[in-house]
Design brief:
Helix 1 packs across helix 4, helix 7 runs parallel beside helix 8 (260-267) and helix 12 (353-360) packs across helix 13 (365-379). The chain has 2 domains: 17-83 and 388-425, Roll (Urease, subunit C, domain 1), CATH 2.30.40; 84-379, Metal-dependent hydrolases (TIM Barrel, Alpha-Beta Barrel). By secondary structure, the chain is an alpha/beta fold. The protein has 13 helices and 21 strands. The chain starts with a helix and ends with a strand.
Length: 426
């Protein structure tokens, strides 16, 4: 399903954006706060200052030079830190039945929803995100990214995949509808290595930054046992990874368990998202190859809290507890982590909950911040450009009301947002 250039122009022009928010800064800005997070060094600098010129950071420390005419923004008793990174979002989804909204809502309507979601995420402190599938709005995903990049609408820096790729009858196929109606899948079909390569080439032509593949589903959790069928063989995934590598891109997989996870790790994907169940061999391979696990606890908690009935809620909580236990094994095995919430099916702008849950389930606040900022920057292909407050990096800076190294919940209290040197929340 595609949207015409004229239709997209109409959609994007009606999104309300304050002109002053998207204008490039014309002068130097000094940000001052009681504290500053040195995320790589694992320490708090007090007080903290950041000198910004244009879209880049020029200097960082307890005190920086203040050029003549520089604007000084005193943020008081807050902590300056890099903008947050969500490595698993769905801009084109909102709470409610995913299958119905992708069929009932037009692509222009869903594009408006996505633009609003991008703004909500930015205002919550997320200055970079990875959109893991548009569910039937392939070309609109890159259009929203481009509109953000050009300043037409406010939003995080985006890496976008377009539609996820799936087998016939797989995880996202419309298998519960009247087959005579031929209801389309939310994903793009590929049933062999050759078809995977063809789909990947088409998606990259349409502007995808990376490729998302469904590797497992439908999941089953019964009597403490988790199972999930794989969808692509190791050889098929290897063909997909080779094709993306040819043009400098990567593959990320929706993958909840074995043996699909072992196939994905062996093929060399960039991340295994959800990762409910990983074998010892898979965890070893992920550690050695620096393949990130993205747990997505927030979506599981939300679905359990909003289940249709008590029995369904109990089942989801039991499955969630299984995931938590497996997550602790993954931490002990040294599996590298990134932070992704799967926001979309739950409200955009609320996904800092993911960081709180990762701490609740066994990580130290600093470790979660490093997973989010350092690993997230690498996973999104922006290592050395975002995720730290350092000279030469993009001026993606937020201020939180407290010390996140002592209390991770302060990331839910964002009072200031700057992206690329432009202040969006103050």
């Amino acid at each position: 399903m595609k949207i015409s250039s004229l239709g997209l122009a109409v959609v994007l022009c009606v999104v309300p954006v304050a002109a002053q928010e998207t204008a490039s800064p014309k002068h130097a800005v000094v940000l001052h706060a009681t504290r500053l997070l040195d995320v790589a060094g694992g320490r708090i600098v007090a007080p903290g200052e950041v000198l910004v010129e244009g879209e880049r950071i020029v200097a960082v420390g307890s005190k920086v030079d203040r050029p003549t005419g520089a604007e000084v923004i005193d943020l008081g008793d807050t902590t300056l830190m890099p903008g947050l990174i969500d490595a698993h979002v769905h801009l084109f989804l909102h709470p409610g039945a995913e299958d119905f909204q992708t069929v009932q809502e037009s692509v222009p309507e869903r594009t408006l929803i996505a633009a609003d979601a991008a703004k909500a995420d930015l205002m919550a402190g997320f200055t970079a995100e990875r959109d893991m599938g548009t569910e039937g709005a392939q070309s609109a995903d890159s259009a929203v990214r481009n509109a953000i990049n050009s300043g037409l609408i406010p939003g995080p820096r985006m890496r976008v995949s377009g539609n996820a790729v799936d087998i016939t009858g797989g995880h996202e196929d419309a298998i519960h509808y009247n087959p005579d109606q031929h209801v389309l899948s939310n994903a793009t079909y590929a049933d062999s290595a050759a078809e995977l390569v063809k789909v990947i080439r088409e998606q990259i032509k349409q502007g995808a930054d990376f490729i998302k593949i469904y590797e497992t589903g439908k999941d089953s959790y019964k009597d403490g046992v988790f199972t999930t069928p794989f969808q692509y063989t190791e050889a098929e995934l290897a063909a997909a990874v080779a094709e993306t590598s040819r043009v400098g891109k990567v593959v990320a997989v929706h993958c909840t368990g074995e043996p699909g996870a072992s196939y994905a790790a062996a093929a060399g994907v960039s991340s295994i998202d959800h990762a409910y169940q990983l074998s010892d061999a898979t965890m070893k391979a992920m550690r050695e190859k620096q393949i990130y696990a993205v747990p997505t606890f927030a979506i599981s908690e939300y679905f359990a809290d909003h289940a249709a009935n008590p029995a369904a809620a109990e089942h989801r909580r039991a499955e969630h507890a299984y995931h938590v236990a497996e997550f602790k094994k993954q931490l002990a095995a040294g599996v590298p982590m990134a932070v992704g919430s799967d926001v979309g099916p739950f409200p955009h702008g609320t996904q800092t909950r993911e960081l709180e849950l990762m701490v609740q389930y066994g990580m130290k606040p600093l470790a979660v911040l490093q997973a989010d900022l350092l690993n997230g920057a690498k996973l999104l292909g922006w290592g050395g450009q975002i995720g730290e407050l350092k000279p030469g990096y993009y001026a993606d800076v937020i201020a939180v009301l407290g010390n996140p190294v002592e209390d991770i919940s302060v990331v839910t209290k964002v009072g200031f947002v700057m992206k690329g040197g432009v202040v969006y929340r103050r």
